[in-house]
Amino acid sequence: MSTDICQVLLIEDDPTFALLVERLLSKYPASSLAKGNYFQVTRASTLLAGLEQLAQGCFDVVLLDLMLPDSQGLDTLGQVLARFPKVPVVVQTGADDEPIVVQAFQMGAHGYLPKHNMDGNLLVYAIRLAIERQLQINRFEENYQQEPDSELQGLEELANSVRTTIASRMFGAQPLREGWPDLFQEFVSEYSKLMDLALEQQTYKVEHNISQKLNAMAEKLGLLKAGPRDVVDIHTKALRQKTQNANLAKAQAYVGEGRLMVLELMGYLTSFYRKYYIGLSNIKIIQSTASGEIG
User: Fold this and answer.
1) Domain boundaries, the chain
2) What pTM did the predictor assign?
3) Contact 219/274 with Cβ under 8 angstroms?
4) pLDDT (tens digit per residue) in 19-64
5) Can you name the CATH fold of 162-294?
6) What angle do the packed helices 228-244 and 120-160 form, to 10 degrees?
7) 3-class SS string, 195-235
8) What is the C-alpha separation between 91 and 11, in angstroms, rounded?
9) In contact, 242 and 131? CB cutoff 8 Å
10) Which residue intervals define the domain Response regulatory in the entry (predicted)?
11) Which CATH class is domain 5-134?
């Protein structure tokens, strides 16, 4: 957003109301609510014209009438958000319909203004709030994009580090995703379902025995000689699938629960190899003792 001028796109087919909005905003160049910004209003009288303006220009906020000549209702909002999800939208409607307002917010609107009770302070406040909210979302998305990479970096280093004697004997040379792609996808699907169960367990305080299921998965991975690299691959693919179309809150929840799950699965896999290696060592000792007695 510019430090001097706030670019406002007003998509409104009523010229009288559009003029009212322009006049109200012109009175607030030095308002404390406007934080010293001037408002420059560009008007479009149809949804098509508004979308064309958004494609050509750089706007800080959209004031959107839901009832336009070429689009009516929440579909109007849906089309704007689908094309320009990063631009904050404040919906304007003459209908005092609370369900529509609630649905608009659920779809992604950043504010609501009743056309029958337009006030300059309320108008400026709604614009500022919408812009601030979008900035917060942008910051969260930047952190969210970095968070999986940073949290997986340690696991990546573990997976690619010098392997222990146990690991070098036990792990398969070829990654699971390459050697057994069908089995790999089955593990991804199973892990993905466990992520959903983990969220449900956390949200509704129900018991799904996630730890027991992760332990069982670790044993199956161990029998296939899977290693830390395979665990990271499974976790990463499942996490990407889960967060791809999730809203921000749910995506953050998946990241948080996934962080705990991947570490727990890694721990169970390590325990499996320890027990397996100890078992092999005991067998070798018995075999050596038996050979000595025979000799």
Assistant:
1) 5-134, 162-294
2) 0.51
3) no
4) 999 999 888 764 545 555 688 999 999 999 999 999 998 899 999 9
5) 1.10.1240
6) 160
7) HHHHHHHHHHCCCCCHHHHHHHHHHHHHHCCCCHHHHHHHH
8) 10
9) no
10) 7-130
11) alpha beta
